[in-house]
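Letters spell out the chain; backbone shape is given numerically. Take this protein:
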Amino acid sequence: MIMQNSYDLISKLQEFDNKQQYDEILSIITDEFLEDEKEKPYIIDLYIWRGTAWYNTKKFNKAILDYDKALYLNNNSALSHFNRGFARIELKEYEEAINDFKKAINLNTKVYIRAYLFIAIIHRIMGRTEDAIENYNKAISIKPDYADAYYYRGLCYKEKNIKLKESKNDFEQYLVLKEGSIDNWTKYANYHIKELEERLTDKELDNIANCIFAIKRELKIQNENITHYSSLTVAKSLFIDKTKFRLSEGNFMNDPSEGTELLKFLDCKFSSINNNNEFFRKPFIGSFVKDDNNLNMWRFYGKEDGSEAMGCSITIKMDEFIYDIQNSLTQKEENISDINFYRVVYIDKNYSEVNIPNLLEIQTQKIFDLLNELKTTVCNYQGKNKISIEKYLNTITFLFKSDDYKNEDEVRLVVQGVEFEKKYNKNVTPPKVYIELETIDKIVEQITLGPRVDKASEWATAFHYCFEEKKPKIVLSHLQFK
């Protein structure tokens, strides 16, 4: 394509960008073209254009290389730092991304004030609450009418169950600044305000919520690899077809007793959660374990068409999966669900003790004490917000199972699913309701093929070549399976 002048070139690149025709941009800005244009004053812009095209076609390493070249020519290019920060996020280079965002801020604070939000989001997902709040504060101090910073600071307070009054004030300030807007953010801001108002005006409800938050805090796990057992058909869909990881709604769990053990322990008679005559929406559940090669797991979950031990186990990086989900929700201007992984608690048949494998006795006792405190506060509740109690209980009911299953040592992701589109698997009866989170092909550490997998070497080959950059370890289980 022949361009008459630089104006024609930039106009054409802008047109392709607006139409999201990134391959067209890449067809223009070739290495040969860049070599021919290297003396032109807009050469830096060309590297940035191509870097952005690589980014939008998910070639993040190539995007970083082009941003590096732009910065080699001009290390004060704030846009190059800003854009490289996003590419580094995709490659899980979080500290490097933070440094790039900071440089963009230092070079042009007013234009790149949004970088404070992305720094804060990284801190928030990594559990560094104080650092996240500090960056929201900085953004607000520079731009007091920065609505998004108020929203996310309020969300950060609420997620960590701190400064609830300030959280409510932040959401209210967000609505003031966004007066007249009708979008998901304003809808969810009102949702948060209503929830916070209930807790601030109902001390009993607040005590129950605090107790549930404390239980979740004790059960939350971080910085670990976790494993999901599945069929090879599902693995093929995830890795070769690049589909998103699914969570099924709680009513579709295989065990009919799921979600009932905690309520039995609490003796929660008033709750419609426990009323089989009335439909009650349950959260969406993801089940994982820490053992990537376990006979019981192969028997119950690592199946293919119902045949045991003919599936696979998929080991992923937990924290990176959480970040990918959170980042996706942020980009869609939505964020309500608690996106974290929690240990499962196993309750004995007499409801007199709990078992949490591989947890210190003192920690297990603390959780048991919190459960008894929760039981007391729920049973003695005299307020009018019983539906809200059910909502809070609904966030943890699927973290409790009978101690018949304690050998599984399960880890769970429990998502309310408000922000996600509900989809249906119509190939089963009744149709199964599920939500889609994010793709996991970039965060897989290991794929273990079951001990009875047919043509295991061919499956291993197919999986190996479908990963473009970082390839996971692929192994075959040699457990004796009968």
